[in-house]
Amino acid sequence: GQNIDQPTEMTATEGAIVQINCTYQTSGFNGLFWYQQHAGEAPTFLSYNVLDGLEEKGRFSSFLSRSKGYSYLLLKELQMKDSASYLCAVRWDTDKLIFGTGTRLQVFP
Amino acid sequence: DVKVTQSSRYLVKRTGEKVFLECVQDMDHENMFWYRQDPGLGLRLIYFSYDVKMKEKGDIPEGYSVSREKKERFSLILESASTNQTSMYLCASRTTGGFSGNTIYFGEGSWLTVV
User: Other C-beta atoms within 10 Å of A108: how many?
Assistant: First the structure.
């Protein structure tokens, strides 16, 4: 099976930059997603990486290295509303989508 | 906009009851998923359906079954609910065509409590 690792919790201050890492097993890899989930709500799509490199989308960027089984989500100019859980998910094998346990980010003023 | 609708937001059921969780998507997506989400464990895949009448077990299928008789509807069935099935259940769907097929869309979630 797929084993996805990401930190459980992170904290940062408003206006700062934070990087959330995710590692996964490379066998059967078909793509990697990042989702944001606020407490009590469904996850919402942030980014998708299938090729190596950095994808930038406004304040959020996502990076992938397929050979290393590594991705990160970079959040710039942090705002209070960015306090949420960030889920790394790997598209694996026969189109299954497996999620990590999520990283809970708290942004302080 | 893609819409994934879960019929019940909050349910309370008794141990041993049969429970149906319904999910409907309106975008003709081939793939549909059922996950459960528990604190500290993240989202875990229960069942996955490639297309109508096709299904595959996820990581935690025990105690669950699914039905996909029509493309737009994917049902999760708890044959005999137990207290350890108290959780938040998320349905999701995705098309397999083109780049847009890379995005999975979630429903609002169903909070099930088994007493």
Answer: 11
A41-59 tens-digit pLDDT: 889 989 989 899 999 989 9
**Contact between B42 and A102 using a beta-carbon 8 Å cutoff:** yes
Calculate the alpha carbon distances from A30 to A3, A22, A92, A108 in Å: 14, 15, 5, 36
User: Is the Cβ pair A43, B45 closer than 8 Å?
Assistant: no
For residue A70, list its beta bridge partners. A23, A65
Q: Report the distance separating Cα A60 and Cα A55, nearest Å.
A: 9
Nearest residue, CB atoms, A100 vs list B42, B106, B107: B42
- Using left for φ > 0, alpha for ψ between -120 and 50, and beta otherwise, residue A104 falls in beta
- The predicted-structure confidence for B35-67, as pLDDT tens digits, reads as follows 999 988 889 999 999 889 999 999 899 999 999
Instruction: Specify whether the CB–CB gap between A87 and A43 falls below 8 A.
Output: yes
For residue A94, which residues of chain B lie inside 8 Å, CB to CB?
Answer: 50, 56
Label residues A42-57 b or e (16+ Cβ within 10 Å = b).
Answer: bbeebbbbeeeeeeee
**Cβ of residue A20 closer than 8 Å to a chain B Cβ:** no
Least Cα distance to A15 among A60, A63, A66, A75 occurs for A75
Residue A77 exposure: Cα atoms within 13 Å on the Cβ side? 4
